[in-house]
Amino acid sequence: MRLKIELIFKFILILFWGISIIAFLFSMVEAITNHTFDFSNDGFKRLIDIFLRYKEIFYTTIILTTAFYTIKSFIESRQSSRRDLWVKIFRETLNELRSENGVIYKTCLLDIEKLFNFSNSINARFEGEKDLRNFLNEFVRPEISKFEMDSEEYKKFNGIYPNDDYSYSERTYFEILIHIGQPTTTLRDSFINTYQNIYRDILKTSEFGLQRKINNKEFTERMNRPPIRTL
């Protein structure tokens, strides 16, 4: 909506600048062809009077130009403040996740501008499955193997999966997701399930996912194995 208003404002501004240039050229032609210019007070007065015939057009153009750039500067200032706050909070979220998955931490830190731009493009609201899928395909699919292998749980279980639907990194990345955007009313009830289904589908169809070691028995044994005590 804001973009449409800005485009309309720009169109009106360009239109008035075009009219102003035409008015200026008409004034110059009249001044050159119909008047003999001299450097006396009367000569300057005649020249000014010619241009003042279009004063409403010139004044309106100046007012519109000033208003446009003043509003644009204000909006950009607000956006900059919003971005700084977003980045600050996001960095805090990343720091909390750093011990769980260092690769997710580093990757999101490097992509912080892209992540903010995506969040901004959807107004921090996931409208439906399409938004979720676009986001995960862009930011998760290229890194899914690294996300999985750097999970502390993956290391704990030596890369063994209990079943084909299991993911070691999806819970950590969900914290990233909810910082990018919240679900709208239509998506709220199915938000987590939709996220999990897409995330797991990305994992299962990846080259890494196809080569995973799946062994429910060994996974369960490792889960129930008591921790090693050191003296």
Features of the shown structure:
mainly alpha; two-stranded parallel sheet; 4 strands; about 75% helix; rod-shaped
Describe this structure in words.
The chain has helices at 2-34, 41-52, 55-97, 102-110, 112-121, 129-139, 144-149, 152-156, 170-180, 185-188, 191-205, 207-210, 216-224; strands at 125-126, 160-161, 182-183, 213-214. It has 231 residues and is mostly helical. It has two domains: 1-80; 98-231, no CATH class. The strands form two sheets. The chain has a two-stranded parallel sheet with strand order 1-3. Strands 2-4 form a two-stranded parallel ribbon. Helix 1 (2-34) packs antiparallel against helix 3 (55-97). It starts with a helix and ends in a 7-residue tail after the last helix.
Q: Concise description?
A:
The protein has 13 helices and four strands. 14% of the residues are buried. 74% of the residues lie in helices and 3% in strands.
Summed over residues and divided by their number, the pLDDT gives a mean of 85
Question: Which oligomeric form is depicted?
Answer: single chain
Distance from first to last alpha carbon: 66 Å
Structural category is mainly alpha
Q: Choose one word for the global shape.
A: rod-shaped
Rg over C-alpha atoms, rounded to the nearest angstrom: 31 Å
Largest sheet: 2 strands, parallel
Query: Looking across the biggest beta sheet, what order are the strands in?
Result: 1-3
Stretches with pLDDT under 50, minimum 5 residues: none
Per DSSP, the total helix count is: 13
Strand tally? 4
What is the helical fraction, as a range of percent? over 70%
Strand composition percent: under 5%
